[in-house]
Amino acid sequence: VLTQSPGTLSLSPGERATLSCRASHGVSSSFLAWYQQTPGQAPRLVIHGASTRATGIPDRFSGSGSGTDFTLTISRLEPEDFAVYYCQQYATSRFTFGPGTKVEIK
Amino acid sequence: QVTLKESGPVLGRPTETLTLTCTVSGFSLSNPRMGVGWIRRPPGKALEWLAHIFSNDEKSYSTSLKSRLTISKDTSKSQVVLSMTNMDPVDTGTYYCARLLRGIGYYYFDCWGQGTPVTVSS
Taking CB atoms and an 8 Å cut-off, how many pairs form between chains A and B? Predict the structure, then answer.
C-alpha cells in the first residue's frame, strides 16, 4: 500500500512543492515512479527509479528517497505544474498507485 | 513517435463484458523490453492498475480483479485487448493503455494513450 501526503497542497507559482509517498513495506528505489495528471489529460511520467527525470521533464522536478519514504520536489512551481501527482511502485509483478496529491493554486 | 490509442464502447450495461482495444504505433509488441498495460481512473478517484502483457505473452493481473480480466495481444495488428466480465457501475471511469518499459532494475509506464471513457449503467 502506498500513502501520499498531503492530500492537497495549496501553493502559489514560484513556491516550492514537497510531496511525500510512503510505502507500507520497503520498495526498491528502482521500481518507484511519479506521474503527473492534469484535468482531461493522460498521466505523464515525471520520475522513474525514484530519482531519474523522464524525457522532457524540466530540472525543477526532482525525486529522492529509499526504503519506505520517497519525495517529489518541484523547486519553483510553474502554472503548468498544478496537477495531481501519483507515486507508483512495482513489486511481485504488480503495480500499485498511491491515492495522489493535488497541487492547487493558492 | 510512440502513440497508443484506446477504443471501445463508451456505454456498458451491468453484467455485460467490456472489451477495450489499444492500438500502438512507434514500437513493436515483439520487443522483449516493452509491454502494454491497462490502467483506469474512476471519477474522483486515483489511478488503478489493471493488467499488463509482454512480448513473450507474460501477463499479470490486479489481484482484486483477476477473475474478471483477460489481456491478450495481436502483434501483427499492434493491438492489445482487455476484456472485463460482469461489468458493474463501479467500473465506470476512464481507461488508459500505456507502454511499459522493463529492464534490469526498472519497470515503468513511459507513454500513455489519451484514455477512453466508459460508463456502466442500466
Answer: 63
Give the Cα separation of B33 and A24 in Å (integer): 29
Q: Could you say which DSSP state residue A54 is in?
A: P
What's the CA gap between A97 and A99, in Å, rounded?
7
Inter-chain residue contact A94 with B107, CB threshold 8 Å: no
Q: Which residue has the cell 495481436?
A: B74
- Compute the distance between CA of residue A73 and CA of residue A52 in angstroms, rounded to an integer: 12
Q: Which of the 8 DSSP states describes residue B75?
A: G
Asked if B86 has any chain A CB less than 8 Å from its own CB, the reply is no
Q: Is A30:A36 a contact under the CB 8 Å cutoff?
A: no
Instruction: Tell me how close the Cα of A88 comes to any Cα of chain B, in angstroms.
Output: 9
Q: Mean per-residue pLDDT for B71-80?
A: 96
CA A21 to chain centre: 8
On chain B, the residues whose CB falls within 8 A of the CB of A102 are none
Alpha-carbon gap, residue A61 to B30, rounded angstroms: 33
Q: What confidence tens digit (pLDDT) does each residue in A39-82 have?
A: 999 999 999 999 999 999 999 999 999 999 999 999 999 999 99
Asked whether the beta carbons of residue A86 and residue B113 sit closer than 8 angstroms, the reply is no
Residue of A nearest to B116 (CA): A42
